[in-house]
């Protein structure tokens, strides 16, 4: 049995130059506040997203016809791992660049592609994903929001919840039930819903730190043209789950607490405490391993394979790692020490937000269930 | 995997399986010699096999997978030049751990799919599934770490990668052996059942050529000495083309 076959990642020759470009851009336009740099892919900064768009660092792999750069998947990987490692505020465009753009290019009709894809690549259009509902979390196939035909149009009725970034987004790609009386995975379709459509309203949900990341989105008699249907009617489930490997194995699954690790290294340099150095060693080994694993999945995706089991393993290990860092730092560092003030601030911030790491993108329990199925259990 | 390496694996796999944990030197050594395995890392020009570190990974991992009773990696490393023996053996043990974890995982999955309790296979119970999923993640991490170290060895200096790989593999031993035994119940604890060949080796290899504390101190002091601002640039420079 071998569940994870790593192959040498053929890092692009352009990687060093791309890294320099991203590091310079983040140094100039990013944020210096270490707390803001933690978990930075949930921090929207539309100005920063536009800078990336201007620099040709969004939609990098997409056709130039739609505003892309036609660069390789691994070149994009280099850019996103640099952005995350530097704690750049990439939250505004993250979902659109990672999955909505690719999904539109793969399945969207010409009208949808023209309207949204070039704007995403410019860092001007942001997206949110309408999956969870009040009665439908991990059990996603129980969605009840409906789409019904009315002449040439569709009318959407229902509610989405925990919708990250809905308040800064320009459109939502929602999974809804388009066939009355259908059950579970059947009869679902995806729709592209501009957030300024009459009947769409967004209500904030404030998290335990006081931050506003997710929302409730109410869809009341939302009238959409026929062209708002994404892909094929009734195939929403297949479409929505097809790109999970991309979503689950990216560097955002292990780098959310990287800034805290780096602050720990800084602190260990002044504290001369062997226990801290041991912790640094252990966390460095894990970061090195996870980077290999994440990049290995990216290389397979770039070759057109779908390493779904491997991607899921990366998410589980990565989430556990980024959750463990604040716990281990708290256990090892004396926060009474005035020298540890920055470390303490980042640590307490991450202790509070890190429970979400093993919830977003599939809970730990769901993820482990997928791995178990991949092992041939169930 | 290239053709040479696939051929090597196809040779070593059945041989190691047949020799197994109870292999005797009298039987094993002539067969190793015949296949040229002890000369795996000796250049062809010097009459060796001319293999690289990815070839070594393949062989060492399979030695671990079959809990091979002879320390073949030590024979190979003895003849390898231009690398400190301690480092090379730490790499070898990481590769063996990776193989043995995969084998133990395979045994565990096979067992829980077969063993029935409460009218269904153990593998149907969510608690068992979740434990095995955790084990699978650890086995995957150990395998990737060993692979990363082999790739680095082929590029040149690999002290950081070997330290990280041995440390990561060591850490995987804890969860791997714990879950493997837990899901097997009492049978896994017997001499007649094959699991102990793997788990007892895993505990041995975790200690040999650097335990967790040894490598985390070494890695930690190196990373700390370089400083926080060098960690990420160093990490990426290790794999980027311009720095190969």
Structure description:
The complex is a heterodimer of chains A (378) and B (244). Chain A has 378 residues and is of the alpha+beta class. Helices cover 46% and strands 15% of the residues of chain A. Chain A folds into 3 domains: 111 residues, Butyryl-Coa Dehydrogenase, subunit A, domain 1, CATH 1.10.540; 107 residues, Butyryl-CoA Dehydrogenase, subunit A, domain 2; 132 residues, Butyryl-CoA Dehydrogenase, subunit A, domain 3. Chain A contains 13 helices and 8 strands. In chain A, the strands form 2 sheets. Chain A has a 4-stranded mixed beta sheet. Chain A has a 4-stranded antiparallel beta sheet with strand order 2-3-7-6, with no helix packed on it. In chain A, a hairpin with a 5-residue loop joins strand 6 and strand 7. In chain A, helix 1 packs parallel to helix 4 and helix 11 packs across helix 13. Chain A is globular. The two termini of chain A are 17 Å apart. In chain B, strands 1-2 form a two-stranded antiparallel ribbon. Chain B has 244 residues and is mainly α. In chain B, helix 5 runs parallel beside helix 7, helix 5 runs antiparallel to helix 8 and helix 7 packs antiparallel against helix 9. Chain B folds into 2 domains: 82 residues, no CATH class; 146 residues, Butyryl-CoA Dehydrogenase, subunit A, domain 3 (Up-down Bundle). Classes of the chains: A alpha+beta (378), B mainly alpha (244). The interface between A and B is large, with 61 and 61 residues.
